[in-house]
Amino acid sequence: MITPVVRKIAKGVAWTGGGILGAVALYLVAAAGLSAVPVAAENPDAAPDEVEAYLLSNGVHTDLVVPVRSPQMDWTRLVSYAHTPAADTSMQFVGFGWGDKGFYLDTPTWAELKPSTAVKAMFWMSTTAMHTTFHHRPTLGPDCVPLHLSRAEYARLIQFIESSFAHDAQGRVQHIAGHSYGQHDAFYEAKRTYNLFYTCNSWANEGLKKAGQKAALWTPFDFGIFWHYR
User: Which pairs from 81-88 meet CB under 8 Å and 24+ separation?
Assistant: First the structure.
C-alpha cells in the first residue's frame, strides 16, 4: 500500500522533474528564437584595407581566427608558438576561443564529461580559459567562413580578444602548461565567468558584434552563429 508520505514524495519528485524539463525546454526555445534574430554587419561591403579572418567551429566551440602577424598586431607578443607541442612557426593564422576551464582542460571528449564539471560551468562556479590554436590558412566549408574586416573593425576585435586574457602582475598572459588537444594549441587563464547564458559561443558572437560583423542577437550554440553566414 502506498502511504501518504510516499505519495507526497512522489508528487514532489514529479513537480521537480517537470520544472527542470520545463526550464530546459524554455532555454532551448529561447536559444533557437534569439539565435535566429540577426544583428546586421555595420559594413557589409569589404573595405579596401580588409583583414583576412575566419569564423571556425569544431562542432561545439566557435573560434575567431586572425592572422598571426599584421601591421596592426603581432599575436606572438601575446601567445607563443613555443607554448604548443609542435612549436611550428610556419603557421600563419591563430584561432582564439574562450570557455569554461573545466570543460576545456578536463573534458577532451563528451564521453569524459563529469556531472560536477557541467554543474560548475552552468551555474557560475568555475574559472575560464582561453584556447589558442595556430593554423595554416583555414579551408572554407560548412564550419569555416571568411570574415571581411576593415582595419578599424579588426582593431576593435584585437581589443576584445586581448581583454579576455587574464594577466599577471607584470601584465603578461598566463600560460596553462601541460594542456593541449593536439600539436598546435595551448591554453591560457581568462577573465569572466562561463554560465548558461554566456558560453564559449556567446563569447565568439560578442566578438563578432564588437567587430561590426553579422551575429545573432544571443546564442549559446555554434549553429546560432553560423545560421547568419550560410
Answer: 81/134, 83/175, 83/177, 83/186, 84/134, 84/180, 84/183, 84/184, 84/185, 84/186, 85/180, 85/182, 85/183, 85/184, 86/183, 86/184, 88/134, 88/183, 88/184
Q: What is the 3-state secondary structure (H, E, C) of 190-210?
A: ECCCCECCECHHHHHHHHHHH
| Residue 222 per-residue DSSP state | H
Is 20 a domain residue?
A: no
CA distance 94 to 137: 9
The answer to whether position 126 is within a domain reads yes
Output the furthest CA–CA distance in the chain (Å, rounded).
80
Q: What are the average pLDDT values for consecutive 10-residue runs of the chain, which has 230 residues?
A: 44 40 59 80 68 93 96 97 98 96 70 58 74 97 95 97 96 95 96 91 97 96 93
Q: Which residues does residue 67 pair with via DSSP β-bridges, in sequence order? A: 93
Domain encompassing residue 71: 37-227
Residue 96 resides in a domain? yes
Q: Give the orientation angle of helix 200-210 with respect to helix 151-164, to 10 degrees.
A: 150
- Total domain count for the chain? 1
Question: Is residue 21 situated within a structural domain?
Answer: no
pTM of this prediction? Answer: 0.84
The secondary element (H helix, E strand) that includes residue 99 is strand 93-100
